[in-house]
From TrEMBL:
<keyword id="KW-1133">Transmembrane helix</keyword>
<dbReference type="GO" id="GO:0015267">
    <property type="term" value="F:channel activity"/>
</dbReference>
<comment type="similarity">
    <text>Belongs to the MIP/aquaporin (TC 1.A.8) family.</text>
</comment>
<keyword id="KW-0677">Repeat</keyword>
<dbReference type="GO" id="GO:0016020">
    <property type="term" value="C:membrane"/>
</dbReference>
<dbReference type="Pfam" id="PF00230">
    <property type="entry name" value="MIP"/>
</dbReference>
<keyword id="KW-0812">Transmembrane</keyword>
<keyword id="KW-0472">Membrane</keyword>
<feature type="transmembrane region" description="Helical">
    <location>
        <begin position="70"/>
        <end position="88"/>
    </location>
</feature>
<dbReference type="InterPro" id="IPR000425">
    <property type="entry name" value="MIP"/>
</dbReference>
<protein>
    <submittedName>
        <fullName>Uncharacterized protein</fullName>
    </submittedName>
</protein>
<feature type="transmembrane region" description="Helical">
    <location>
        <begin position="25"/>
        <end position="43"/>
    </location>
</feature>
<dbReference type="InterPro" id="IPR023271">
    <property type="entry name" value="Aquaporin-like"/>
</dbReference>
<keyword id="KW-0813">Transport</keyword>
<feature type="transmembrane region" description="Helical">
    <location>
        <begin position="100"/>
        <end position="122"/>
    </location>
</feature>
<dbReference type="InterPro" id="IPR022357">
    <property type="entry name" value="MIP_CS"/>
</dbReference>
<dbReference type="InterPro" id="IPR034294">
    <property type="entry name" value="Aquaporin_transptr"/>
</dbReference>
Amino acid sequence: MTGGHINPAVTFGLFLARKLSLTRAIFYIIMQCLGAICGAGVVKGFQQGLYMGNGGGANVVASGYTKGDGLGAEIIGTFVLVYTVFSATDAKRNARDSHVPILAPLPIGFAVFLVHLATIPITGTGINPARSLGAAIIYNRDHAWNDQLV
């Protein structure tokens, strides 16, 4: 139904590229955020001890890094993800290489893996704004909100 982009950053990028209408982009982003909130609620409901022990999965800037470091890491990580999605799903490439649509998830998954390796030590990897928002809303502690804009 949504094309599989469960990340508002990807949805926004597709909107800017005029591959989605404004109405559809807003609808997708609202649904992505609601899904993340529901998902965080389910995790909290089933694994209360682990959930609270791990800070609710909320993204925070690690000690030793500034908010500027965290913001830079998240901007670069999100750029890498969105750029990879655009590269892997480019219509011009699809016309030239008929196997690309089948293989598109591989470079996207690899990009997500590499971004996680790079940014988990800094911010816990918040390249999906919906996931970060859902975790912060359900956890609802001050430290979860302090770094939310990063």
